[in-house]
Amino acid sequence: MMNIKDLGWNIFFEEQFQPYKMQGFDIGRVSREVRGQYTLHTPQGTIDGDVSGHFHYTALNRSDYPTVGDWVIFRQCADYAQIEHVLDRTSVFSRKSPGSKNREQVVAANIDYLCIVCGLDGGRNFNLRSIERYIAMAVEGGAEPVLVLNKIDLCEDRELAMLQAGRVAENIPIHMVSAASKEGLNDFAMSFEKGSTMAFSGQSGVGKSSLINSLLGMDKLKTAGLRESDLRGRHTTTHKELFFLKNGAMVIDTPGMRELQLWGRQKSLDDTYSEIHEAAQRCRFRDCTHQDEPGCAVRELLIDGSLETERYENYTDMRAELSFIESKIDDKKRYAKKAKEKALSRMIRQHQNNYKRK
Fold this sequence. Notes:
Elements: H1 11-21, E1 26-34, E2 37-42, E3 45-51, H2 53-58, E4 71-77, E5 80-86, E6 92-96, E7 104-109, E8 113-119, H3 128-141, E9 144-150, H4 158-169, E10 174-176, H5 185-190, E11 197-201, H6 208-216, E12 240-244, E13 250-253, H7 269-272, H8 274-280, H9 297-304, H10 309-357
Parallel strand pairs: 3-5, 8-9, 8-11, 9-10, 11-13
Antiparallel strand pairs: 1-2, 1-4, 1-12, 2-3, 4-5, 6-7, 12-13
Helix pairs in contact: 3-4
C-alpha cells in the first residue's frame, strides 16, 4: 500500500474530499489517460475506470474532464472505477485546443513544476521564442517553470547556449543534461522533492521520452530519432502518463507539440517579460499598446538596445493572442451565468405553478 502523501496529497485536497468520504466514495490520482479510459493510483493500489454517465451529463466543458495528475472521486464497482467528480486543481498546464474553436485543453493538472525541455543538437529544438511561450503558460497555470537543456553531448558551445537561455529564463532554474551520456541527470532529479510532480513538455524531438527513460533507469517509453531532412522530431508519445522516480518525485510525460497555442490572460506575460512590464508602468498613457504612442517607455528600451526586437515582437504577438482568448473566456463566463440564471428562474416558476395547482 502506498502512502497517499507520496502521491501528492495535501490539505487542499483533503478538505474537498471530506463530504465525499462521508458518503463512502474513494479517492485516486489519474496516472494515465488513453481515449477516455483512465488508470488511477490509490492508497490501495491501481485501478482502471472511466467517467460515469452523471459526469458526462453535468460536465460543461472538455476541460472539466479528468486529465493526468487530477485527483478524482470514484465509486468502485467490482474491479472498475466509476469517476464521479474531479477535485479543484492547484495548477494546470493548458493550451488552446487544436482547431478553430476556442476551447481549453488541459494537458496536465496539479503539477508543481513545468519542465520545458529543449534540444541542443541543432535544428529547431532550441528556440528562445518558443521557450517564452512555455514560461508564460507555466506562470498562467500556477506551476513553477524549469528549463531543461538536453543533448549537451551534441552541443558545440555550451557556454553560449547557457547565455542565450539565461536571456529569457531570468531567475528560472536551468539544467544542462544529456539523456544519452547521463550527464547532469542525477543533480537534476535530486532537485525535486519526494511527493512533488513535474510535467515534461516541449517540441517533438527534444528528447522528453529519452530523458524520462534515463531517469527511470529503464526503457518505459518509445523513442525515435529526428527526420534527416529538417532535424524535426517525430511524435512518439501519443498519450499522457505519470511515472515515479527513484527519489519519490513524479513526472508526467506529455505529447510533443509542434506549436503551443496559448490559453489564459494577458497578465501571465508580466513575469515572463518582466522588463517590459516594469517599463510599461512608466508609459505616458495607461492603456499604451507599445506600438507608436508618444512617451512609450517600452519603445525606449528598443531604441537603446536593452530589449531585443525579436523578443518585443514575440511579446506583442502573444499579447494580441491572449487578448482575443481573454475576450472569449469572458464571453463564455457571461453566457454560463445567464444560463444559470435562466435555469433558476424556470425552477422558481415551476415551483410557483405547482403551488398554485394545490
